[in-house]
Each structure stands twice: as structure tokens, then as C-alpha cells.
Design brief:
The structure is a single chain. The protein is α/β, with parallel strands linked by helices. The chain has one domain: NAD(P)-binding Rossmann-like Domain (Rossmann fold, 3-Layer(aba) Sandwich). The chain is built from 6 helices and 7 strands, in the order βαββαβαβαβααβ. α3 runs parallel beside α4. The longest helix has 27 residues.
Length: 234
């Protein structure tokens, strides 16, 4: 590890979007980068897993094994059909749609953190980082009920983990961005398929990630809100 900052990193949701960008950004700084997703991830050591299922959680736990885990980065997420567009209507959301959003965005990270705590304890400076959203913040004008509920819930997870893990000095952080300029989001904005205004440069989000991961074990940074200067919720 002479020229590497981390021994093992885990990025959940690493096949596309923010998760892929984070995995690509950190790959050269880790001896082992575990990329978790349902569809193939082009970076790191891919573990095929649906984290909304007990089988998926077990597959990731087995993949980490007896290794130490320096950071668990839950970058995955989903939302209701037609979310963030003018076509969205809560009344027409199916039960399956609502249950899937809560399972992926909220239950999965809770269960994954619980299973990987032994591996995190083996690290000299363990970090848990969850990707939230401005839609989980107070008074954000979002209409997507299940997505907003799940992102509010993630904030609760971090606040509770702060107390539960305080004595073990395992830091938990949630980052709450607006639209982030991934290729997918930029394409949707160009086609006017997303509400919410301008996007945050992806490079800015990666700088925030670097900051969180570089903090000493003496510091806990619970929440970071990251609106676009000209976006909704700024």
C-alpha cells in the first residue's frame, strides 16, 4: 500500500451514473475496489448482486470476507416511474414501484452496513458514505413520494449511526446533491426530460467525496447539502 490510500473500497451502484464515476475516480487509490451492481460494472472487481434481496447482501458479504473495509460507499438508488418529470403522478404509482424504491434506497443500505460492520472495524479509518438527495431535505419542492421518503430515511440512518457507532469511531456521512452532471443526467436535461434546473459538475461531487474520505478518524461529517447554484432547492 505504499502508493495507495486504501486497502479495500466497496462502491455499490457502480455500473452507471454517480457510482461508476466514483469507482473510476477511486480505482487507482485502492488495492482492491469492489464494484457492486446488478448489471456489469466496468471498473474494479465486479460482484453481481441485487442489494434489495437477502441473496445480494450475502453475496457482497462473502466477497469482502475477512478483508478490512476502509470505506462502504452506497451510491446506488432508484426512483418511481416518470420521477422528476411532468409525467409523474403519485396516484398512479404501482405498489411494486413504491416497494422497489424503498427497498433499494433505504432497506438495502441499512442491511449492507449491518453485515459489513465487522470488516469496517478492521480498518484504521473506516468510512460509510451514503448518496442522498436534496429531495430528502426539509422543504425541498419534490413530488416523488417514495423517493423523498427513502432519502429522508437515509438521513435518519446517518444520524442514528452517529450515535450507535460513536464509541467505535466509524464515521457515517450522507451527501445530498441536486442533479449531478453524469452523462445520463446531462442527456436527460438536454432533452428536457428532467425538472430541477442546472446540474452540479461531476468533478465537484468527486472533490466532496475526496474530502470526506480524507478526514481523520477524530472527525465525523454527518451531512453535506449540495444544490446547483441555479437549480431547484438552492
Amino acid at each position: 500500500m505504499a502508493d495507495r490510500a486504501f486497502q479495500t473500497l466497496l462502491v455499490a451502484g457502480a455500473s452507471r451514473g454517480i457510482g461508476l464515476a466514483v469507482a473510476e475516480h477511486l480505482q487507482a487509490r485502492a488495492d482492491r475496489l469492489v464494484s457492486v451492481s446488478r448489471t456489469p460494472a466496468p471498473v474494479g472487481e465486479w460482484v453481481a448482486a441485487d442489494l434489495a434481496t437477502s441473496e445480494g447482501i450475502a453475496a457482497v458479504t462473502e466477497a469482502i470476507g475477512a478483508d478490512r473495509l476502509d470505506a462502504l460507499l452506497y451510491m446506488g438508488g432508484t426512483w418511481e416511474t416518470d420521477a422528476f418529470t411532468s409525467r409523474y403522478a403519485f396516484e398512479t404509482c404501482s405498489d411494486a414501484d413504491l416497494e422497489r424504491v424503498i427497498a433499494v434506497n433505504l432497506l438495502a443500505p441499512i442491511r449492507l452496513i449491518q453485515r459489513l460492520l465487522p470488516a469496517l472495524r478492521r480498518s484504521p479509518n473506516p468510512k460509510i458514505v451514503l448518496m442522498g438527495a436534496l429531495s430528502g431535505c426539509d422543504n425541498f419542492p419534490g413530488r416523488e413520494v417514495a423517493n423523498s421518503a427513502s432519502k429522508f430515511g437515509l438521513r435518519g440512518v446517518v444520524h442514528a449511526l452517529r450515535e450507535e457507532l460513536r464509541s467505535q469511531q466509524i464515521a457515517a456521512t450522507i451527501i445530498n446533491p441536486g442533479n449531478v452532471g453524469t452523462p445520463e443526467v446531462l442527456a436527460d436535461l438536454a432533452a428536457a426530460q428532467l425538472d430541477g434546473g442546472a446540474a452540479i459538475p461531476l468533478s465537484d461531487l468527486l472533490m466532496i467525496m475526496d474530502c470526506v474520505l480524507s478526514l481523520s478518524r477524530a472527525t465525523c461529517l454527518k451531512e453535506i447539502d449540495l444544490p446547483a447554484m441555479q437549480g431547484t432547492g438552492a
